[in-house]
Amino acid sequence: MPIYPLGSLAGCSLTEKESVTAFRQILVGLMQLKNYDILHRDIKPGNILIRKRTPKTFQIVLADFGIAGKYTEQSEYFYGTAYYKAPEIFDETAKVVDDRSDVWSTGIVMLEKMYGLDKEIFPKPKSDSEREEWYANWQKEVRRKVEGINSESELGCLMKIMLQRIFVDCGERVDAWRCHGTGSRIKLWSRHSLTLRARWWRSWVKWVDGVPEMRKQENQGNRERKRNLLNMG
Predict the structure, then answer these.
(1) Which H/E stretch holds residue 70?
(2) Short name of one Pfam family for this protein (predicted)?
(3) Mean pLDDT for the stretch of residues 36-40
């Protein structure tokens, strides 16, 4: 894997446009993963690396696919990082967890980077018996933070629309494609993100070699589909 000296989003302050640009790029990455029925399972600031950062450009790369897996795989443990997990990850009766869990994690990342989430007042549970109560309180804090977003500004209004479609039960939650489409429709990407260069998508597909299920020949249609993603905004 290449070295990214600019580090990750963890502990990194972003401008509003950089945050929205990262939001869009993560969703496009999840859209491509969905083509192969693969979950990342651990979307968090530390796993989002900064490839390029200039006044006019902000490019990120999804990293750490160590616990990535197929939609149909059953896990014997509650994978991922507690603060960023979707509710269905804690549900032992859930038969299939799909890309909507990664979309939830992406929403938490965006809420944290753009509006702040005080994780220190919600220390991770030390035992399984504390987990359910802890997570219920954490979800309340997440939803409280979303409702507190200032809707008087255009960006605040648009981000609130996006996040309200993410922080709901899995059955009602948008998947990566619909979430990205919503951002295009309400003009979040066109008005509040930096321009994505024509070859940008190549920056985040470098991890493909680390996911065996994705090592297969792509046909021309799939390659064209990737290029056309940039025109969706």
Answers:
(1) strand 69-70
(2) Pkinase
(3) 85
User: What is the rounded distance in angstroms from the CA atom of residue 192 to the CA atom of residue 72?
Assistant: 36
CATH number where 134 lies = 1.10.510.10
Q: What is the DSSP letter of 152?
A: T
Structural domain boundaries enclosing 164: 16-228
Beta bridge partners of 52: 59
Contact 31, 172 (CB under 8 A): no
- Do the domain assignments include residue 1? no
Whether the full predicted model's pTM is greater than 0.90, yes or no, is: no
Our count of domains for the chain comes to 1
Tokens of 152: 């008087």
CA neighbor of 169 nearest in space, from 232, 110, 112, 90: 90
- Please state the φ and ψ torsions of residue 147, each to the nearest 5 degrees: -65, -25
| Bridge partners, residue 62, by sequence | 48
